[in-house]
Amino acid sequence: MSSPASLPNGESLVGIIDVDGLRSRLAAIAEADSAGGASNTARSEVLALVRDVIRDGRATIEEMLFEDGSGSLCARRLARLQDAVIHAIHDYALRFVFNAANLSAGERMTVLAVGGYGRGTLAPGSDIDLLFLLPYKQSALGEQVVEYLLYLLWDLGFKVGHASRTVDECIKLARADFTIRTAILERWLIAGDEELLAELDTRFEAEVVAGTSEAFIAAKLEERSARHAKTGNTRYLVEPNIKEGKGGLRDLNTLFWIAKYHYRVNTTEALVEAGVFSRREAKLFAKAEDFLWAVRCHMHFATGKAEERLSFDLQPEIAKRLGYNAHPGLKDVERFMKHYFLIAKDVGDLTRIFCAALEEQHAKDAPGIRGFVRTLRARAKKIPGTLDFHIDNNRINVSRATVFRDDPVNLIRIFRLAALHELEYHPDALKLIRRSLRLVDAELRDNPEANSLFIDVLTDRKDPELHLRRMNEAGVLGRFIPDFGRIVAMMQFNMYHHYTVDEHLLRSISTLSRIEHGELVEEVPLSSGFMPLQKDRVPLYLALLLHDIAKGRPVDHSIAGAEIARELCPRFGLDERETDLVAWLVEDHLVMSMTAQQRDLTDRKTILDFAERVRTLDRLKLLTILTVCDIRAVGPGVWNGWKGQLIRTLYMETEPTLTGGFTQSSRSERIGQARERLAERLGAWPEAERTGYLDLHYPNYFLTAPLDDQLRHAEFIRESRDAGALATQTRTDRFREVTEIMVLAPDHPRLLSLIAGACAGTGANIADAQIFTMSDGRALDVMLLNREFESDEDEIRRAERICANIGKLLQGREMPASLLANRRPPRSTELFAVKPRVSVDNTLSNQLTVIEVEGLDRPGLLSDVTGAISDLNLDIRSAHISTYGEKVVDVFYVTDLIGTKITSETRIERIEVRLKRVFESPEGEMSSPVVMSSQRAFGIPHR
Predict the structure, then answer these.
(1) 54 and 125: one domain?
(2) Which residue intervals of 615-666 are DSSP H helices?
(3) What's 369's domain CATH number?
(4) How far apart are CA 527 and CA 515, in angstroms?
(5) What pLDDT shows up at residue 363?
(6) Structural domain of residue 860, as residue ranges?
(7) What is its EC number (predicted)?
(8) Is residue 410 part of a domain?
């Protein structure tokens, strides 16, 4: 057991804390005190002294972290500093406060660090977990010492977890509770009686640990699975939890708890000696642990609290602290996060290796008939057509250690066989694959059989994502396709993408497979209908795998990706037509989503331009499927019914253009069918009322709004007959993580601007806006707001405040600027760099001028932009709002006040300058006098 004044690696605490000096100064406080150190005055002096010692010691430790970069050492230094302080306070309390230098047998007590602290490591914001170990029951003196120590630690600002127990109680509780058992498993003597600790050591080993490894392992692995599910069940979230997330520190802790419990070891070196890890894997464990501790300690130091989520706000700061620099195509923060995800992947590899060793040992140790039955079940089964692999408990395994060296094609063949026979992978096989990666060379990449086998895995009819994921985790995919290797673990520093690039690509493959299996018919009926008829499924799967493969380069990733596709496709056995198809899909993979979300689909020019880009009906169908898969794989809640309806509408409007006018139904027929479907859903309405309502909407409404939304709109408008000029309605959508506000009011050029201003007044961020004008002069505006609160009740209250603000603005009782002045600051987007861009285009529509603005999103932006457009005497005919995390792309179809296009170059220049100023000088935009002077133009009475 190390002294509190030293570190496990032999490094001294000298330079961090003067232990002897601290004790001397504490003694001096007691000697100067009339009560011998027991007075409140002495306590205050002790508190001030210890606070200064901790502050100075932590500052020194932070400097040392910057100097040597060792996270593990930093965590140990912090723990030893804590040990020294607690030890000094404990001795001060015994000697001076309670004058009890000589303790009786019943007054003995041991102060133990347990849990994470018991492992000898602490982060700056970690809880201090203490166990006060007693001989049989709490004495009066022991209770007083514990109380003095705890209250002092609390006053110092520490969060202390503590328990006072006898050895008997520790054993009893550890038997019954795995959490307590785990905490006691990691124990460290801070101060007090060593004999009590020795007794606990002996009894814990004999009465708790012995013979219970299987139950403990099962409990820890189940706990890990539950924790992963809670934090997102993927190690590739772009804002990971460094402690609790998959691939984080807690996973390494779990491995070590199990190792300590099962193998009776205390170091990773001992795991090498036990044959669990190779020396390389032990070094990988130490490297991963050191990196994760460095990140965690820097996070705590930077924030001054126990922050475990590596959020966008923190990532640039931590990247700077760790010394990362930008490279062409990758920011410094993106390089840092790529390193983080590679480390998280290493943690996953170590977990699988460790579990394989446990399983093998467990099989060997199984006694009697049970072990015989287990052996029979695990007996190798042959795989038809190969002697290199066999089935081991429904998992594919290698038949010999030289299987990949003998034939490197086996590094691809194993994944094809696993897919063909629906097998998982034995950890031993994965371990051997990782140790054979050097065999994936240029010769293997050019091998026709290897490439054919890879295409079979990619287009597997059952579960291609599983086998591609295993191939990626084992390192084969990135070496077999080096361009893919460049985007493994790569994150994009923005608020739109939820996963790393490789994770996104694998999830898009999963979505395509689910569509092909008919699992998403209700959500994506159009794509589901196309897929069974696809003769080009191989190019489609390959295009999905490659569509973002050129991310992180200083050139357009779509164009660069197409060039990569042209190089790879012949290698994979595709002919010239298929190669051109894949390259086109990769190059234009964003065109359909951008057109659907950012263009007016009722404008004939939009459809003609899109059709010219697509050219054939087959390519349109393939692009539709690819677009759906791409959007759905971005992250939870990104895909929704509104986007699905827009894509369906774009397809249905483009199809007749590509087929020379032939389609299953003409535009007028589709409008008629949509009206009939809504009429059928409104069957309970009186016929005259139903007909009158259907006539309120212009034709494009029926083609762009989903039927379920149309029904809700109808009920809302019907219920609003007696509500006066303004009516609002709110609802939450937990699945899409948005809150919807519907507004029905007299149409006016500034209506959208003021509604957006009311949203901005509460700090609400508009994710989407749907604007429908009606034939009676009213407008139905539907705003989708990013969710802010966990509780639906809180979300509804926020939405109702927004609706009240809308009423105040429309009645002229409130100014937009005053609403913004009182808003609560939202999550900052200042970390992100989005260069403002404004374009005014007269080629995208025959009758209207199209203004497209792109820039950094913020509350009030939409209101400012639409207000500026009105200030420029422009009439907004349709608006298309798209939010991609921190970036907004808003498109407005406008005319001048007499209904004509904007053709004057001078006026176009003035529009661009004015709208850029909205992004560059946002302060004060909403206080425009024009806005103020038009408040009462809506005809909404002040009630």
Answers:
(1) yes
(2) 617-632, 641-658
(3) 1.20.120.330
(4) 7
(5) 54
(6) 720-938
(7) 2.7.7.59, 3.1.4.-
(8) no
Three-state SS letters, 517-546 = CCCCCCCCHHHHHHHHHCCCHHHHHHHHHH
Interval 431-489: pLDDT, tens: 899 889 999 999 999 999 999 999 999 999 999 999 999 999 899 999 999 999 999 98
Give the confidence band of 663 by pLDDT, cuts at 50, 70, 90: low
Which spans in 304-439 are helix H?
A: 315-321, 332-365, 368-378, 403-406, 410-420, 427-434
Cβ-based neighbours of 418, under 8 Å, separated by 6 or more:
396, 424, 425, 467, 470
Question: What does the alpha-carbon distance between residue 697 and residue 747 come to, in Å, rounded to a whole number?
Answer: 14
222 and 189 in a single domain? The answer is no
- Domain at 42, CATH number: 3.30.460.10
The enclosing H or E element of 761 equals helix 751-761
From the list 935, 832, 848, 913, the residue with the least C-alpha distance to 316 is 832
**What backbone torsions phi and psi does residue 623 show, to the nearest 5 degrees?**
-65, -35
Residue 195, SS3?
Answer: helix
Among residues 347, 374, 401, the one where a domain terminates is 374
Spell out a b/e string for 581-617, using b for 16 or more CB atoms within 10 Å of the CB, else e. Answer: bbbbbbbbbebbbebbbbbbbbbebbbebbbebbeeb
Alpha carbon distance 19, 8 (integer Å): 17
User: How many residues belong to the chain?
Assistant: 943
Tokens of 610: 């899109």
Q: Are residues 795 and 886 in the same domain?
A: yes
Contact 640, 648 (CB under 8 A): no
Edge to edge, what strands does the sheet with 110-114 contain?
160-166, 128-134, 110-114, 187-192
Q: State the Cα–Cα distance between residues 39 and 97, nearest whole angstrom.
A: 8
Residue 464 resides in a domain: no
pLDDT at residue 937 tops 70: no
User: Do both 263 and 189 map to the same domain?
Assistant: no
- For the chain, what is the domain count? 4
Residue whose entry in the numeric block shows the structure tokens 């205390």: 266
Q: Using CA atoms, how far apart are residues 349 and 240, in angstroms rounded to an integer?
A: 18
Tokens of 84: 């020294």
* CA–CA distance, 247 with 236 (Å, rounded to integer): 9
Looking at the structure, tell me whether residues 359 and 507 fall in a common domain: no
Alpha carbons 711 and 771: distance in angstroms, whole number: 16
SS3 for 104? Answer: coil
* Alpha-helical regions (H) of 233-331: 249-263, 268-273, 279-303, 315-321
Say if CB 65 and CB 74 are below 8 A apart: yes
* CB-based contact 497:350 (threshold 8 Å): no
pLDDT of residue 883: 80
What is the distance between the alpha carbons of residues 331 and 264, in angstroms, rounded to a whole number?
44
To which H or E segment does residue 879 belong?
strand 874-884
Query: Looking at 710-765, which runs of residues are DSSP E strands?
Result: 727-733, 738-746
- Would residue 377 be called left, alpha or beta, if left means φ above 0 and alpha means ψ between -120 and 50 degrees? alpha
Cβ burial 863-902 (10 Å sphere, 16+ → b, else e): bbbbbbbbbbebbbbbbbbbbbbbbbbbbbbbbbeeeeeb
**Residues 190, 258 within the same domain:** no
Read off the pLDDT of each residue in 167-189 and give the average, rounded to a whole number. 92
For residues 767 and 759, the answer to whether their CB atoms sit within 8 Å is no
In whole angstroms, how far apart are CA 187 and each of 52, 116, 227, 263? 28, 9, 23, 17
Q: Does one domain contain both 193 and 236? A: no
Q: Within a domain: residue 473?
A: no
Domain boundary among 170, 205, 240: 205
Nearest to 494 by CA among 293, 638, 303, 681: 638
Examine residue 470 and state whether it is found in any structural domain, yes or no: no
Within this chain, do residues 58 and 92 fall inside the same structural domain, yes or no? yes
Whether residue 171 is predicted with pLDDT greater than 70 in this model: the reply is yes
Q: Which residues pair with 589 in a beta bridge?
A: none
Side-chain half-sphere CA neighbours of 178 within 13 A? 17
Mean pLDDT over each residue of the chain, to the nearest integer: 86
**Helices and strands, number each (H, E), in the chain:** 42, 16
Cα separation, 751 vs 806, whole angstroms: 10
